[in-house]
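Hi W.,

Here's what went into the run:
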Amino acid sequence: MTDRTEERFYEKKISRRQMLKYTGAGAAGVAIGASGLGGVFKVFGMAEEEDNPRSKNKINFYGKHQSGIATECQSYIYFASLHVLVNSQQELMDLFKMWTPIAVRLMNGEQIDGQTSNMLIPSKDTGEVVGLDASNLTLTFGVGPSLFEKESLGLASKKPAELKDLPHFPKDQLDPAYTGGDICIQACADDPQVAFHAVRNLVRAASGKVSLKWTQAGFNSYPMKGKKKETPRNLFAFKDGSVNPNGSRESEMNEVAWVDAGQSKDWMTNGTYMAVRRVQMHLETWDRTALQEQEATFGRHRDTGAPLGKEKEMDEVDLDEKDTNGAYIISENSHVRLAKKTKQKIYRRSFSYSSGVMDSTGTFDAGLLFISFQKDPEQFIAIQNSFGRKDKLNEYITHRGSALFACFPGIQKGGFIGDSLFSII
Amino acid sequence: MKQTLVTAFALTTGILLSGCGAAEESVEKTPVATEEVDLTAETDAYKEFALEQMDEFVINTEKFVTAVKAGDLEEAKKIYPVARMYFERSEPIAESFGDLDPRIDARLADVQEQGQGEEEWSGYHKIEYGLWVENTIEGYEDVADQLLKDAKELRARVETVEVSPDLMITGAVDLLNEVSTSKITGEEEIYSHTDLYDFKANIEGAEKIYEILKDKMAAKDQQLVDELETKFQTINSLLAEYEDENGGYISYEELTKEDTKSLSEAVNQLGEPLSMMGIVTE
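Here's what came out:
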């Protein structure tokens, strides 16, 4: 018995160390420490990192706008809404400064720090993406209205008038567990572990400075036409985002998403407002709904994505067209009609989610993590109000989460995430 | 008694993560620490602390056992959480004895997970069941006698433990992990709901290790020491909110979800900087 006991004692002590060793975190960390830190230099005491042009499947961190907005939509998202725990503007600024080089390294597909040789401390990087490339990771940071209401931060005068909680919409059933937040981090990537790892490491590095309010993972799958991604389908099997502006066209994004100079608070110029809605989709009721009714609900054909009465996905939606009985082909309470008639445009970047079982009903907790970017939240509000009580789709969905964030403009080399918010001018 | 479970978990995980070959290597017996710094004074101080705790543990267990055998339910219930705190404070050492730890501290769930029947169950938690669920301690006399014997044996064996810096550093984080995984969920004291006593004791155990290493650590990284100072203060003042009028703690059942969440977050925020204490060996 004593022998076994001792053996166990040692097993425990060793296994922890061995785990580190065998997961490769230590070794890879050291390798990167030797080779990857060349681009680091110090600006005002802050380690600066550069986009690494040699990284595979890499999106640039620096630019006029933040990544993860106009960027072609990836397959996975890990979205996190955070509480801020710091109590001064200086500490908040330091938080964003601290995050900046980490974000660059993450988007380079690099470990966030070299591992020391001291095996008695954990590695800075949690290590689960060792061996994976950057996977088109993008990181998008934003701030919610509640941040400006914290007196200790002294940001009240910087709050844009349009940055406020989204109004209550008819049929909203918001759960506080999925609502609001002081800061958001949107991590999107073509690998789910890369997206998760990014948020995990940013949150860990900010231990004691932020805490998790809510998070949501999501996914999109794209049928490919040659090398071009086609519109993905949501969990109701309908193509989602057919009329989306083209993110790669600056003119379209200027019209819809990027905040113009003078339009909002100065610090928001070239930024954008992000609406996030966690929309539960009642899969069970949808699945027993006749196809004709499903199509009437959206106002589109399911398989082709074409507007009702049309053949192709990109065919113009004609709201005036009537059938032989004089009834609108795209019915008055269809989702497409109600959205289109507002004449408002938003830039959508949504993901499906499935998160286990609804406690109260035993049904799937699945749906859409709806995300849209717009230069003014009113664009989203107008569309959502138009859906109101009329939208036929309401019967099959329930909005359970909601948040609005002001996403900073892009970061310039030498600057840091959100620096415009803290500038004196 | 989470010890054996933790071991089992770590081993399984090790094997899962590392594929073949790891299992054999994981019983290698020479820890490779980078110990260039002389920490003898610190390890000696910690051993002294552990022995003090063990002395108190035996004394209080004796009081507890006496009350149980005298059939004094109220007295036994009063001593129970207090006696256990001495054990919980020095857990990094106490739990290093894979046979004694479960005999003293196993929960029924632990016993069952080991594939054993209820008859194998002994120690504090078994008597806890009698005290709080059955409301009687009749028939528990033998369990009580065995408990005292085991406590004394533990005390004797702790004398032989060689305390290394590694044991202290890893132990401090382990104490917090204990809090995060079982105390904060109320799974440690499912009948008495005295989890907050264990919680406090685990924190005190970690804090003691920090106190001992503090000076050496300050020489390497004053900022880390400052941060740990603040974080220990935070968790301690948070815990103080749940003290009852007798200097003990309120029942776990009185905690709301918000309470446990803020406690848990404070523990995690302490755990991150605490995990950096290993720099003292550099």
